[in-house]
What does this fold into?
Amino acid sequence: MSLRFVTRSIHAYLDYPVAFALMGLPFVLGLGQSNPLALWLSVATGVAAFVLTVLTDHHLGVWRVLPYKFHLAVDLTVGIAFLVAPSLLGFAGLDALFYWLNGAAVVAVISLSAPEQEAMA
It folds into this structure.
């Protein structure tokens, strides 16, 4: 059994709640204590994640214009950016922990994503 079990369908169902969490949790958690950017980076990323999901070619995409592989590449880039953001932007405490945990979760999901199956001719 492969450890790569996150299918396109599972990923699609994760996208919308994650986007809304990135927009709302910073306010709930009071992020921005070490740097106001800690609040707004997550909110902006959540908005971008929502738009990306709406435009992705999977069954929950509304306008399916972006390839799923592109979506995965963007997600991986965001995950890595979240992992380094605390060091680069001077986030500390809960601000840093929020980004490290979210970055690690995104990188893990991408790492566990099942490869796309090629269509049979």
User: Anything to note?
Assistant: The helical segments are 8-29, 37-55, 68-89, 93-111. Residues 53 and 103 are 18 Å apart (CA to CA). The mean pLDDT is 93. The chain has one domain: 8-111.
